[in-house]
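User: I'm writing a tutorial on reading structure tokens. Could you give me a worked example: one chain, its sequence, then its tokens, then a sentence or two explaining what the tokens reveal?
Assistant: Sure. Here is the example chain.
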Amino acid sequence: MGLGKRRPTRARSGVSGLQERRREAPPAKGAGDDAPVLTLQGLAHDGRGVGRTPAGKTVFVEGGLAGETVAVAVHRTRKRFDEAHVREVLEPSVDRVTPPCAHYGSCGGCDLQHLSLAGQHRHKQAVLRELLARQGLAPAGEPELLAEAGEGYRRRARLGVKVDAEGGVHLGFRARHSHRLVDLDACPVLLPELSALLTPLRDCLKALEAPRHVGHLELLASDVGETLVIRQLREHPDDTYRWRTFAEARGVHLARWVGREAPTFEWLTPAPALSCRLAVGERELTLGFAPGDFLQANEAVNARMVATALAWLSPLSPGEPVLDLFAGVGNFGLPLSALGARVCAVEGSAAMVDRLGDNAQRNGLRVDARQADLNAAASGRALLDELGPRTVLLDPPRDGAEAVCRSLAERPVPRVLYVSCDPATLARDAARLVQAGYVIQRWAVADMFAHTAHLESMLLLEHPDAGRRCEGASIDG
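And here are its predicted structure tokens:
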């Protein structure tokens, strides 16, 4: 039997079924009868309910909401707290709703579908407020909310593929806290055109000669249609033909990464010019990208974030110098350039810098696209010294922009707009800037991933002394 072929039937699969219910773990020793019923006081940052036993021990309860009385099953005991899940809701919260997905509770893709969207928004605003407060920061007022529809919004997704011991092929997302897959026939948070591909994809996988060669699948929606990217451990010519037949029948673009240690990328159908549109006032920009490039999953919320950034930074003087760090394919830098700013956009990836430059040219914009290691303190200092920007925009990965913020503390600029996908690192970095004299002027929460505990956030910080130093200086500095 060749590597990757189907194997004979064995006793266990280890893959959850469509309607799998959570296996209820027995209460841990010492945590059973003394705390079977809890009244939950609030929500933890990850969306779990928080209660206390009669003895005062904290319990984090999956599936529980603030204000509810629930019977719980404790599945993990620790020294300072226990972890549990809801066995029965005795007194529900007014914010409890019926989850829109039949797989909720087994699939790990979403963790807040039992909480109303309004409740999710309040929770995420509270999380940002608390994380900033832990760093001694207390912005005025309430954070702005940037949110759109809770379903049919996700334009990219990675799906796991697994062949079980019986030879059954499974396609879906991971179960919570597990490497097991939950088979999906549909997903309400995916764009409908992507969700409609799930069942046909599973059928195609079942027809392959070597389904074990497939590691995962990526689905991506763009202005030119749907794209399927296969992560394949090795090539199988007959299966390549099957994939091409699938793509032709479904009208999707098809590409793959092949290999284990150093995979290579290739298109199996004619290479499309993948792009997405972004409105800037009366103008519409086109941003090209390639599979593997970072692209915000929620197009509508991303548009709200870009519009908010432009509103917060307006008015921009003609030719005003703006430094766009962690610039990606130009999601923020190109709109700023379209409004007349003189943008220097910096990325760590050479391929991304090329894409950014191509996007500027495609839209008739002048952007200075550069490559630099923004985790190195010297890079930030050199850029600030050379360009003397009035505005710095940061959109870093989850690790944040600690090195850049050190440089901004040492060499203040009038305005810093920080866009973050991790509120904890945002709070850490913002604290450093505030200690250096910056003041938080605006803040916002963006619900990029509805029905999950993930949140994006934005802060606008201004440094009054840096602004006064810039007054009277020429734009060309």
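What the tokens reveal: Residues 159 and 217 are 5 Å apart (CA to CA). The chain is about 25% helix and 30% strand.
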